Task: inverse folding
């Protein structure tokens, strides 16, 4: 089983719909992150959480919200999806100042 | 946050060493240099990290200049499976404004050729 699991792996949704991407981890890490990646570009940080009660905006948080339901779970929501949110989304986890482990990604298409 | 500069792309012959450079001239004293790679559209994979000493693990070696303004990732015997995008990232240690955050740049696309 993967240490960092993202669901769903692929999703097609319509403009204006609310969608939630979920991430769970079995590594016992306190820190979790959400990134998006557009074709040919590097990863951009959306939100990050250093513990259950600590949520921080990243580089591109507009149009997104997150929820840290437990140490092991970190969800990303698009309240009203728009086509330019079509991207590959990655969740990652780490301890303080150690390497991060990434999930396999969620490919989201907004039509 | 300290920024990094990497070449957009590089080629390497299979079996030869791949040397990937990274400039991080604004790095602070408590910031680490991390390297990740991303194969196709998979999740990035950690390779190695260092503060000021050279580091080596089973995947690669990291050479950091004495002034810490640049570093080189070395894959000693590149294989076709090492074809990927390689990201050099500066990440803060305790007390740094970017503690824990991983901010990715564009990376270097390494193409290993037969």
Result:
């Amino acid at each position: 089983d993967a240490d960092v699991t993202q669901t769903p792996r692929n999703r097609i949704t319509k403009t204006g719909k609310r969608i939630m991407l979920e991430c769970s981890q079995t590594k016992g890490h306190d820190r979790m992150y959400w990134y998006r990646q557009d074709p040919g570009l590097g990863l951009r940080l959306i939100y990050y959480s250093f513990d259950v009660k600590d949520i921080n905006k990243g580089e591109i948080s507009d149009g997104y919200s997150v929820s840290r339901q437990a140490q092991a779970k970190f969800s990303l929501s698009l309240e009203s999806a728009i086509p330019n949110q079509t991207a590959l989304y990655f969740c990652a986890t780490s301890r303080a100042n150690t390497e991060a482990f990434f999930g396999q990604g969620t490919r989201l298409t907004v039509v | 946050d300290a920024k990094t500069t990497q070449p957009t792309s590089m080629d390497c012959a299979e079996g030869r060493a791949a040397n990937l450079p990274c400039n991080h001239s604004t790095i602070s004293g408590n910031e680490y240099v991390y390297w990740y790679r991303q194969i196709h559209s998979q999740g990035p994979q950690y390779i190695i990290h260092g503060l000021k000493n050279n580091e080596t693990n089973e995947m690669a070696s990291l050479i950091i200049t004495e002034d810490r303004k640049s570093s080189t990732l070395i894959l000693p015997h590149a294989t076709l499976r090492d074809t990927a995008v390689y990201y050099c990232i500066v990440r803060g240690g305790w007390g740094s404004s970017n503690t824990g955050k991983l901010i990715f740049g564009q990376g270097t696309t390494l193409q290993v050729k037969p």
